[in-house]
Every structure is written in structure tokens, then in C-alpha cells.
Amino acid sequence: MTAALGRLALGAALLAVPVAARPQDAPTLTVFAASDLIFAFRELVPRFERTYGTRLTLVLGSTGNLARQIEHGAPADVFFAADEGFIDRLLAQGALVAATRALYAQGRLVLATSRQHGPKLPDLHALLHPGIRRVAIANPAHAPYGRAAEEALRRVGVWEAVRPKLVYADTIRHALQYIQSGAAEAGLVALSIAGVPEVDWTPVDPTLHPPLNQAVAVVRGSARPELGVAFIQFVNGAEGRVVMKRYGFLLPGEF
After folding, report:
1. Which residue, 4, 37, 43, 154, could crosslink 159 as a Cys pair with Cβ 3.0–4.6 Å?
2. Whole-number Å distance between alpha carbons of 255 and 213
3. Angle formed at CA 133 by CA 129 and CA 137, multiple of 5 degrees
């Protein structure tokens, strides 16, 4: 462990004692996070706030867009990306604290079908069916799950045929909302958000796209880096791992 990480880890350890801070006095933390974390973090954030006597502001979006905001000085304290490549690029630019970089999950892509449409689709070739008129994916230009979706469709040889049907969403969460509402009959989304009543899903072979290794780091210039480390450790700790596993993520040590 480097001296810098040691100091941060010590600060996190000190913060691990619950405090009875009044709401107006509670330390605050702003976390930028990929939208595939929406359901898992809805559970984890309140638990962290209770344990650490803090207030956490969660800003969800596509990884590429969030990374661009951090590049331009957005006031984030921690960045949870859906693709470790974005973390590494920001590290190379000096925008993140290298000693705090950690993997926290590997995501999974699924083929989702609107229950309004009918039975779930068995595989990506089923997207060629004329009854599938719209297919939702996150925009590959800035969303890791969108890039994975495009790669999977290309590898099975249906990209060009499916391309005219594609509806591009700003985030993977928005892609799911298209399917939930029936605005798209099907789509490719994250397993971590696919467990909703309006949708059935089939796993996509993970060898059809590069692994969605997800990483996190504290943003350089954060006023509370020790609190940022504490939240990273909380997500990667015993309580966090249980929740992340339940939402379908593979965890560090499993990939």
C-alpha cells in the first residue's frame, strides 16, 4: 500500500465509527456513477449514510458523459465507471487519485423483451423478426453497455440488419425505460437493472464483447478524499458485495 493510500485508508477507518451528526452538520459526498448502478446504489447509499453520518449526492449517467464532466471540473468526489478504460484515461490526465483506483464489479449484458410484445427472445438472431420494430440500446458513442451491445450484434452477424431498428438511449437506464414502456419491443441492457416487472430477459454470451470491468477512483481535488475511500471500501466490503451480487454483478475475485 502506498503512503498516500495508507493515509486515505486511515481516514476511512476513522470515519467508520457511526456519528450522530445533525443533518446540517453532516459531511457531504458527491458520487458520479454509471446508470447500471441505480438499483444497487439505491440500497447501498442510505446504509452508508446511516453508518457514516453523512449525506451522499448520487449523480447517475452514462460513463462517457460523466467522464467528460469530470474532465471539465465537475464537483464530483468519486467516480464509479461502467468501463475501467474511462478511469484509466482520467488517471492519465491527472483527474483522479491513482492510489484509490479499484475494480468493483464486472457487468453483464442481457437481451430484454417487453412483456407487452410477447414471449422473451431466445437470442440475438431473434431481433431480425419483423415483429421487432424497435430495439433499444445505450448510445455506443459514450455508454459502455452500448458499445458492448454493438460488438455483440456485430459478432453474431446481425448488426447491419438490426441497425435500422435501433433506438439510441442516453443511458442504459433510459434504454430499459423504452422497453418497459413498450416504446421498443426489445433491447440490450445491463443485467443489474433488468429485473423489473415489465421485462423478460435472456443472457447474452459474454464472449461476444470485451468484458465490462467496472472501476472506481476518487476525484483529484475532492474536499473529502477519505470519505470517498470509505464509500469505495463500503461497496467492495461485506455489506456492499451482498447487494451487488444480488443485482447480477460479478465481483472482484470472481473475474
Report:
1. 154
2. 9
3. 105
Residue 216 and residue 84 in contact, taking contact as beta carbons nearer than 8 Å: no
Tell me the pLDDT tens digit for each residue of 23-63: 557 899 999 999 999 999 999 999 999 999 999 999 999 99
Residue 24 confidence (pLDDT): 59
Q: How far apart are CA 150 and CA 27, in angstroms?
A: 41
**What contacts 70, CB < 8 A, 6 or more positions away?**
32, 76, 79, 90, 95, 96, 219
**Look-up: residue for cell 462517457?**
64
Supply 6's cell numbers: 495508507
Distance CA 184, CA 109 (A): 17
Q: Which residue matches cell numbers 439505491? A: 42
How many whole angstroms separate alpha carbon 75 and alpha carbon 73?
6
Q: CA-to-CA distance for 92 and 18, rounded, in angstroms?
A: 35
Q: pLDDT tens across 142-155, in order?
A: 999 999 999 999 99
* CA 29, 68, 66, 2 torsion-angle sign: negative
Amino acid, res. 86: F
Domains of the chain: 3-106+213-246 (3.40.190.10), 109-203 (3.40.190.10)
Total H helices, total E strands in the chain:
9, 10
DSSP state of 96: B
Report yes or no: 57 and 29 within 8 Å, Cβ to Cβ: yes
C-alpha to C-alpha distances, 1 to 6, 77, 216, 232, nearest whole angstrom: 6, 21, 17, 16
pLDDT tens profile 190-228:
999 999 999 999 999 999 999 999 999 999 999 999 999
Partnered with residue 119 across adjacent β-strands are none
